[in-house]
Amino acid sequence: MKYVPDATADRQFESDHTVDRAGVPGLLSELDEYAVEQALQLKEKAEGEDVEVVALTVGPEAAAEAVKKALQMGADSGVHVTDEAIAGSDYLATSQVLAAAVRKVGESGAVDLVLCGMASTDASGSVVPAMLAERLDLPQVTLGSVIERQGDQVRIKRDGDTSTEVIGATLPIVLSVTDQSGEARYPSFKGIMAAKKKPVETWSLADLGVDAGEVGLDAAWSKVEAAEARPPRTQGEIVTDEDGSGATALVDFLASKKFI
After folding, report:
1. 251-258 contacts: CB < 8 A, separation 24 or more?
2. Does the CA dihedral 173-178-181-187 come out positive or negative?
3. In the structure, what pLDDT confidence band is assigned to residue 86 with cuts at 50, 70 and 90?
4. What is the C-alpha to C-alpha distance for residues 86 and 137, in angstroms, rounded to an integer?
5. Taking the model in full, what pTM does it have?
6. What count of Cα atoms within 13 Å lies in the side-chain half-sphere of residue 25?
């Protein structure tokens, strides 16, 4: 899961052109809430099985709120990877840290399914699930709108522009889900209170065995050179039709903009 700046807030950039994540309110990415929901549904349907849902996030200190939200929704435990050296990491470095964290989670019990959202609401890259699958050497099944599990088999429905596919895979896998997979539940009062007693571990890069020189802005494969605020919107041109010339004026305007 990703802790992202609130899209309704006035977002700014740091001097190095990375997003200011400390100066604006943040929250659990809405698209990742669907992944949490599907994880909880799979657990609820796994009658008689010992299933644990672990909420994992990588981010600054405030990102603990994303784990908290997942615990309130019903996740069993949480992991928060935080380290100053991670700031400014690109997708490649992020996937490296996530993969190391998943492996460490697996030390205490096999990880059968890594569930991700289809994208983050701040960067919208949609590439981390694929990178994570490659680093974990697992099959990937992505962009599922319907998820069904039968034993160690998982089938998804993926809706494209011209067709719908049904794809199956055998656990363990990396799976990403879309915002069509099912409305995420709201934390209940009981869930909010129960979350206070659920275990949350905080790990650094050293805990994961990740070299700090391989992550962060200096190790990124791309860098923003410049950024400027979007210019304010200007008032549009109003065409009146008091004398019946409105249609002609409209056509002239569209022609001048090369729309027709």
Report:
1. none
2. positive
3. very high
4. 23
5. 0.84
6. 6
Amino acid symbol at 52: E
Q: What is the pLDDT of residues 40-76, one digit of tens each?
A: 999 999 988 899 999 999 999 999 999 999 999 999 9
- Please state the three-class secondary structure of 166-230 as a single string: EEEEECCEEEEECCCCCCCCCCCHHHHHHHCCCCEEEECHHHHCCCHHHCCHHHCCCCCCCCCCC
Distance CA 258, CA 180 (A): 38
How many residues can be counted in the chain? 260
Please state, in angstroms and as integers, the Cα–Cα distance from residue 5 to each residue in 13, 66, 254, 259, following that order: 12, 11, 38, 37
Q: Which residues pair with 4 in a beta bridge?
A: 27
Closest CA to 55 of 43, 46, 64, 47: 64
